[in-house]
């Protein structure tokens, strides 16, 4: 317990840093994932190509490499922001590709006849997507989206290597102070467990309320 009690503020700062990264990156990933899923099923060919390229590039790029590209590459083009913001961008953009594919799989479960019926009533593509298709698609992808955001929370550990305050990064300071590395990682793992269980609980509630019975 000494590792935790003597360094509670350090663990607290790291825990809050991970929570902030997870929340902000999740919001960005959900927003971008929604946009890209809309592009993937849009009637405009250029939108479909853009969405497909976005997903292909980000899903096949190692997240660490993406962190290097964002945190070290963007400042060379004059975009200077706090490293925390760059970390949110890297995590959010990376995860958006997986959110996009989860949403697209849900869209494909909606019968085509519903979209055709909406269009026959004079609804535009955006109205059909937002008012008819996506509400039904969301119900079938609650669990996959939740799993993706849990993975995002764990992936946030990479940010610690780029001077961003997060939970895993606390081990460096405590190791230098001579504390047991084993117990340090035990408390770090418990912190991540709390975060991931919280996300899982939220999506379990959503699934019980709106999920499709299987």
TrEMBL record:
The keyword Mitochondrion belongs to this UniProt entry's keyword annotation: no
Any single biological process term in GO: amino acid transport
The keyword Signal appears for this protein: no
Keywords annotated in UniProt: Amino-acid transport, Cell membrane, Membrane, Transmembrane, Transmembrane helix, Transport
GO molecular function: transmembrane transporter activity
Membrane topology classification: Multi-pass membrane protein
PROSITE patterns reported for this sequence: ABC_TM1 (PS50928)
Transmembrane segments: 21-42, 49-74, 80-100, 181-206
Residues annotated as signal peptide: none
PANTHER family xrefs: AMINO-ACID ABC TRANSPORTER PERMEASE PROTEIN YHDX-RELATED, MEMBRANE COMPONENT OF AMINO ACID ABC TRANSPORTER
Protein name, UniProt field: Amino acid ABC transporter permease
Naturally occurring in which organism (per UniProt): Streptomyces alboflavus
């Amino acid at each position: 317990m000494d590792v935790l009690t003597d360094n509670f503020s350090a663990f607290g700062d790291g825990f809050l840093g991970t929570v902030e990264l997870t929340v902000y990156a999740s919001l960005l990933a959900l927003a971008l994932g929604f946009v890209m899923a809309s592009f993937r099923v849009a009637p405009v060919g250029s939108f479909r190509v853009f969405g497909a390229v976005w997903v292909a590039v980000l899903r096949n790029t190692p997240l660490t490499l993406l962190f290097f590209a964002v945190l070290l590459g963007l400042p060379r083009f004059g975009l200077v922001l706090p490293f925390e913001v760059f970390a949110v961008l890297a995590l959010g953009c990376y995860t958006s590709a997986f959110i996009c594919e989860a949403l697209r799989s849900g869209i494909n479960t909606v019968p085509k006849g519903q979209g055709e019926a909406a269009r026959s009533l004079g609804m535009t593509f955006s109205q059909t997507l937002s008012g008819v298709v996506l509400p039904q698609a969301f119900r079938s992808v609650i669990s996959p989206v939740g799993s993706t955001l849990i993975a995002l929370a764990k992936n946030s550990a990479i940010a610690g290597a780029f001077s961003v305050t997060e939970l895993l990064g606390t081990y460096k300071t405590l190791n230098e102070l001579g504390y047991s590395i084993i117990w340090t990682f035990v408390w770090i793992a418990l912190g991540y467990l709390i975060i991931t269980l919280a996300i899982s609980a939220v999506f379990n509630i959503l699934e019980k309320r709106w999920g499709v019975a299987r």
